[in-house]
Amino acid sequence: KYTTEELTQNALDGIKTFKNSVVLMHDTNTKGTTLESLPDLLDTLTENGAQVLALDETVTPVQHVKAASVE
Question: Which end of the chain offers a freer environment for a tag, N or C, measured as fewer CB atoms within 10 Å?
Answer without folding.
Answer: C
